[in-house]
Amino acid sequence: MPHFLQTVLPLYAKYEASPLIKCYVGAPGSLAWDTTTYGKYLDDLRVASSYWSKRLTTKGVHAGAVVGLWLTGTIYSDLVNLYAISAAGFVPQVFSVKFSRPGRTIILDLLAACDGTALVLDPSFSDAVNDTAIPILEIPALSSLPPVAPGTLEAPSADSTETAMIFHTSGTTGGTPKPVRCNHDWMVWQAIHVNKIWQGSFEGPDIMNNLGSFAHVGTASSMNYLPLSGSCLVQTSCSNFSAEEFIALVNQQGMNRMFIYADWLVTLASIARNDDKVLAALRGMRQVTYTGASINPEVEKWLVEQGVPIATMYATTEVSPALVSNLADRTTLPAMRVMPGVDLTFIPVSKLSVEDLDGDAAGRSKGGILYDLFIPASSRHCPHPTVMTRSDGHVTGDLFEEVQPGYYAFRGRNDDWIRTGAGLVWFCDTKSIEDNIRLTCPDIVRNCTVVGHYKPAVVLFIEAVSDSTSAPDVDILKDEVLRRTAAFNSNLFEHERIVDREHIVVVAPGALPRTKEKGNIRRKAVEDDYAKILAEIYATSSH
């Protein structure tokens, strides 16, 4: 199979008059959207592709080269420029606003790791990058681009196994995200299977919202999968949009299928209990698909009883959609089935008990066997070899339990990575943070652990070398830890940083729960034992 755009471009022409994307252009108190058709997007793509082909070539960038693309992730032109650079024959390595801090060093390092030859960026990021060995080009306004003669935009030549785009993991290891290469065959497969998340047969096009930034793979790839069904994307103002905006999205913009983070669905359900308009809008959806975490079983049950068509799905940056619940039988929630055409295996996990799971997952467990999810290397949706965790394929690190034949429920993580931050979809490598503290603070910290799985921010637990637990001594210890780890923290994504006293808990030496055999601190047990303290931290947290 050739360049993925050979599948997509003819479909833009097929649905020329249909709406492709409705971008949010409103402001607080004034909701508004601007509609772009498939035909207009294709025209913009032709113009921008011609511009970038000439502009990058004059800078000595050859066809097939990796080009860094630093986007805000919030505006229509981001999606135009991303696909235009691809259509011009280059490989976009995509960075979002999340990379604006720490910015320059990480982006240039990641570009160098992927042999990037130029960096194209939004003008708002220009001050963050200078004195580089590679060309830096600002993105001009679409309206300022030179016109091109009418014609058909042709996809460039490529092999299906060649890299089409490069995204990044949603967490860092020691401050460095991992590039995730997506080849052309993976891109085509992903587009087909995103559409398989949606269930049921309806007349008229699907109109769905974005789930996050235009510069992250889930929404960035929408311009690849929407044309397969003539669907439309409507942009939300933020991930936790207001009830008023939700009503407008449904009643004014026609949104009939929704992607939503689990934590915001819980909030929306709470609003719907006292707002008939919100409940009616939820009931009228074709499908409400939540992801990122499990939701409270009582909330789940209430939504099902109210006739809300909810489903849950499992996907990762590396392997794309893999599991989705059965919309026709919502009593099986939160269990999911393997999506049709997905090639994966569930591998039993040894030496791990239910007690080692996070509190929520342990409470939901039915006492069955825990499984790792394994994608064989032969699968079309197995990630690039540079990302694979095994020589014969990829283990995602997420745990599942088979709750009934063919139905699997998510049961947390099987490694040192935890989900945290806004939407609970960002990953944090706890081990790298803990290792840095042990390295920089050996004289004042005896041991430590980072918790925050399925919580809005991470919290550091410290066993102090000193036995003193007086307030002044504890504050001095916290401040010293923050001072010594400041440089390390500055390189982390915001959701991984520990930068204030409120997110540090100091306990006596040996107070944290440990495993019996090796004496390692049990992170999930810490979350359970100190649940009250953590609840107080999150209740007053500014994160």
UniProtKB/TrEMBL annotation:
Q: What is this protein called?
A: Acetyl-CoA synthetase-like protein
Q: Which domain of life is it from?
A: Eukaryota
Its GO biological process terms?
fatty acid metabolic process
Q: Which Gene3D superfamilies match?
A: N-terminal domain of ligase-like
**What's a Pfam family this protein contains?**
AMP-binding_C_3
* Family named by the database record: Belongs to the ATP-dependent AMP-binding enzyme family.
* SUPFAM superfamilies attached to this UniProt entry: Acetyl-CoA synthetase-like
Q: Which residues form the AMP-dependent synthetase/ligase domain?
A: 46-343
Q: Name one GO molecular function term.
A: medium-chain fatty acid-CoA ligase activity
